[in-house]
Amino acid sequence: MRLLRRAAFWLLVAAILLFALFPFYYAVVTSLRPASALFEPAWLPHDVTLANYEAVFGEQPFGRNILNSIAVAASVVGLAMLAGVTAAYSLARIRFRGRGALLGAILAVSMFPQVAMLSGMFELIRALGLYNHLAALTLSYMVFTLPFTVWILTTFLRELPKELEEAALIDGANAWQTLTRVFLPLMGPSLATTGLLAFVAAWNEFLFALTFTLTDEKRTVPVAVALMSGASQYELPWANIMAASVTVTLPLIALALIFQNRIVAGLTAGAIKG
Q1: How does pLDDT run across 47-92, given as a tens digit for each residue?
Q2: Nearest Cα to 266, choosing from 190, 156, 207, 204?
Q3: Where in the chain do CATH 1.10.3720.10 domains reside?
Q4: How far is it, in rounded angstroms, from Cα 54 to Cα 244?
Q5: What's the pLDDT tens digit per position in 246-265?
Q6: Could you give the C-alpha distances from 153 to 50, 88, 173, 190, in angstroms and in order?
Q7: Better-scored residue on pLDDT, 71 or 176
């Protein structure tokens, strides 16, 4: 009976892995096949070619689009971490009137759909003269990355022992020194988790990137992939799209593999109390 349960468990794991990984695998296979052979189903790539990748980078400024996405996502992560850590410390460790209401308001902001904020953000960005600039994307992305960053970091900081803070105060440390020299070294897992989530959210965002950029040189990769066109208005270069999709997915996979231990620790922090 135990052997049967174990076999059923691993069969379920295999089914979940197949469901999660097969679309990406098939995208890789498709990206390595000639465009003329795309509508012939194949589980393994035949006549492997890199022509689709060459076309993606040769026919449009896709390399520039990748650099735009990296710049925007990195700036969003940096600003979200800076603002999120300081705000989370205030909300988790400092008692003041209205703290619960403020935390609830931060959560409420994340509940608004992007399309509901689109017109207001457009007017703000136009007034600041940031239209068709990468800074417009960084500013607009903070609207949905900062709330969950603050919530995750606040939850983590609440679980840290109060004795650490009291010892720092006895040694003469102020609030900023307590945060940066005592708490921050302990926040590696939570920072890795929130940073990766913020990076992924900024990397994959489409609506704001489509609305606030105009030229090919300023677009990020989701918009560049979506606006790929074929020889005619009704023809889509599926092979090129698959090659572009694989290219923009690889950095996320690399980040997840590099920080996987810290991500798991950050997601499980506070789940078990001794």
Answers
A1: 788 888 888 888 788 899 999 999 999 999 999 999 999 998 888 8
A2: 190
A3: 58-268
A4: 10
A5: 999 888 888 888 877 766 66
A6: 43, 6, 21, 7
A7: 71
Kindly state the average pLDDT of the residues 219-226: 90
- What's the average model confidence in pLDDT over 221-227? 89
What is the reported pLDDT for 271?
A: 47
Contact status, residue 199 vs residue 73, Cβ threshold 8 Å: yes
**How far is Cα 241 from Cα 257, in angstroms, rounded to an integer?**
25
The CATH class that applies to domain 58-268 reads mainly alpha
Query: How much is the pTM?
Result: 0.82
Task: Give phi and psi for 7, each to the nearest 5.
Answer: -65, -40
Distance CA 182, CA 191 (A): 15
Q: How far apart are CA 200 and CA 59, in angstroms?
A: 26
Cα–Cα nearest to 66, from 246, 194, 231, 196: 246
Cβ 193 vs Cβ 262: under 8 Å: yes
Long-range contacts made by residues 139-145, C-beta under 8 angstroms, separation at least 24?
A: 140/208, 140/212, 141/72, 141/76, 141/201, 141/202, 141/205, 141/208, 142/76, 142/79, 142/80, 142/83, 143/109, 143/117, 144/110, 144/114, 144/201, 145/76, 145/80, 145/197, 145/198, 145/201, 145/202
pLDDT band at residue 229 using 50, 70 and 90 as cut-offs: low
Tell which residue, 165, 13, 153, has the closest CA to residue 85.
153
